[in-house]
Amino acid sequence: MRTFVRIAALLYPFAGLFLLALLFNAGFSFLSTVSIALIHPILQVLFGTASPAAAASTASTGALSSIKEQFYAVVQNLIFSSTPEQTLLNLCLLIIGLFFLKNLLKYVGRIVNAQLTERSVKHIRDILFKKLTHLSLDFFNRQKSGNLISLVTNDVAVVNQTITPIFTILVREPLQVLLLLLLLLSLSVKLTLIAFSSSILSLVIVGTARKYLRRYASRIQNAMAEYSAVLEETISGIKIIKLLSAENSAIRRFTHHTAQYVRAMIKHQKVLGLIPSISEFFAIVALTVVLFIGGQEVFANRMSGEDLMTFLFALFAIMAPITNLIGIPSVVQHGLVAAERIFAVLDRSPSVRSGTKKVPGFHRSIELRNVWFAYEENRPVLKNISLEIPRGSTVALVGESGSGKSTLVDLILRLYDPQKGVILLDGEDIRTFDLASYHSLFGVVTQDPILFNDTVFENIRFAKPDATEEEVRRAARIAYADVFIEQLPNGYQTYIGDRGVRLSGGQRQRIAIARAVLANPPILVFDEATSALDSQSEKIVQDAIQRVMQGKTAIIIAHRLSTIADADRIVVLKNGSIIEQGTHHELIQRGGEYARLVELQKFAAPSEIVVES
User: Fold this and answer.
1) How far does CA 326 lie from the centroid of its chain?
2) Which are the contacts of 126, defined by CB distance < 8 A and separation ≥ 6?
3) Domain presence at residue 433
4) With a cut of 50, which residues of the chain have pLDDT below it?
5) How do 553-557 and 382-390 pair as beta strands?
């Protein structure tokens, strides 16, 4: 019960649509009941008992009986005429009008249902997506991206099917259709042919609507592909998004595409809902024609009244749409499981909690004091790390794979919090600062830059959506990216493909560097930014890095030691501990781990080292 209450709370913004859907469905149900009730006056007309006097003379007992007799009296007054033929014609016209109104309510109600369904799905998906973007990085380390995508897409859809009172058209069972068709043919081939002549009109309607359905279906699939792509990009790039404090930019892109999906789906439902409504209307017109002609057959004693009524019931059964409320226990249980999965994410709190203080700036240093960290209990990745990074200095972190370099940087960036020890910014615990404010101090460039399937311009200003064109161009110039950007087919408005697939590795890195420096952060972090590049691209990117580092504090994780020979301090890690630190010359003279790593890369002396700048 609690799960249903929580789901109802999520749908509260759509209470108006929900009530409107109930109103139209109630109207449709009422008119459906009235249409069945008209069987009684049909029998009266066919058997010659239709008259106002007959209706008035009928005794009534009880409130329900009184209402029923009053209804029949009203119908008799509407259809009664001086001749049976005219009375029958009036009845046929009444039936046509009734079913026209009923299908109008059905069509409008279906549009309202579509709006309620799709907007509630969008609402839940947007809330869930927003929650995912604000969860800490450790959550994503324990999840499969495919499961998260399924959670936002499939699970939300299943929940929606169980919490909105919608009806669905069921497929007619072939055996039932076949038996009813055989029954119709056995009663009257002539009337069967007349009745099914409406199928020609239905084919015309379907043929006309097909191109619209195809168009809107294509838009739906495109919109679905777009928001799925944004979802996958955001989950895979959550680290850089959080470091850039770009959660709002990601949310804006996602909600834009989900809105496009909703618009396309509602238009699709408008056309799709019109087809069965019009088809049923023409089917009912055919039924009334059968009634009129069949009635003439009865009057001429060529067909019995019982046969005609059997034919009418069978024809009505084979043509009427079958609707049913989705309430099968297995579906409900499925929806509850999906809802619990969704709420499990919505109820999760970030392990890295934001503080309340705004960062006043970066003036002196970042300091790590006796920091310990482990991804899994009793398996420390960093052990008793103490390190100070003065403002304006360049500090390089080196060591073999698994030594803890990237984890150390992630702690400085506050993607994780240490289990022991403290990290200080200008002497104050970084956990007291607002996360977005703290992350604004950093510009980060990784080995595999995360770019989005958008223009070069939007990729550069992703973390600063209010940046002007001149600011974007300036950042590109600093990163040595402006020349190649201008040579692209549409310059800054060129779409670069999924993950920047249309750009080379060096070009992607320079776009990432431009994005990192756009907000002019005081601290730059380069996580093996050139290790995956060829020599020529590495030279260009390294030149860009040297240029953007001027006047900045820089933290560099280096694989190629040639790129850090000029660092103010080189910190060597091994098995999660700092084993030595100093300048390049000091560490070479010491002959320790760093000297061994340099020797492995065939650097024997500073004079032999070529710094690619």
Assistant:
1) 24
2) 251, 254, 255, 258
3) no
4) 53-61, 65, 165-173, 322-331, 603-613
5) unpaired
DSSP secondary structure code for residue 49 in this structure: -
Q: What is the pLDDT of residue 414?
A: 92
Domain extent at residue 7: 2-37+81-346
pLDDT value, residue 612: 34
Within-domain flag for 535: no
Task: Give residue 384's pLDDT.
Answer: 93
Whether the CB-CB separation of 294 and 187 falls below 8 Å is answered with no
pLDDT at residue number 613:
28
- CATH number for the domain spanning 94: value is 1.20.1560
Q: Please report the pLDDT score of residue 610 as a whole number.
A: 37
Tell if the pTM clears 0.70, that is, is over it: no
| Strand locations in 95-198 (E) | 167-169
- Predicted pLDDT of residue 306: 52
The number of angstroms, rounded, from the C-alpha of 568 to the middle of its chain's C-alpha atoms is 47
> Which tokens go with 203?
């084919």
- Domain-embedded: residue 166: yes
Cβ within 8 Å of residue 269, ≥6 positions away: 110, 111, 114, 118
Amino acid at 296: Q
How many structural domains does the chain have? 1
Tell the residue number behind the tokens 């088809």, with chain if given: 279
* Environment class of 341 (CB within 10 Å of its CB; exposed 0-12, middle 13-18, buried 19+): middle
List, in order, residues 6 or more apart from 486 with CB less than 8 Å away: none
Q: What's the pLDDT score for residue 326?
A: 39
For residue 457, the model assigns a pLDDT of 93
Contacts of 320 (CB under 8 A, 6+ apart): 280
In a domain, 201, yes or no: yes
- Residue 438: the pLDDT is 92
Q: How far apart are CA 509 and CA 540, in angstroms?
A: 10
Q: Distances from the Cα of 515 to the Cαs of 257, 281, 389, 451, 607, in angstroms? A: 23, 60, 24, 10, 35
Residue pair 230/250 in contact (Cβ under 8 Å)? The answer is yes
Indicate the SS3 state at residue 364: coil
Which letter, b or e, does each residue of 591-600 get, where b requires 16 or more Cβ atoms within 10 Å of its Cβ?
Answer: eebbbebbee
How far apart CA 518 and CA 428 sit, in angstroms, is 27
Q: Where are the beta strands (DSSP E) in 426-493?
A: 428-429, 442-446
Q: What is the pLDDT of residue 38?
A: 66
Q: Is 442 helix (H, G, I), strand (E, B) or coil?
A: strand
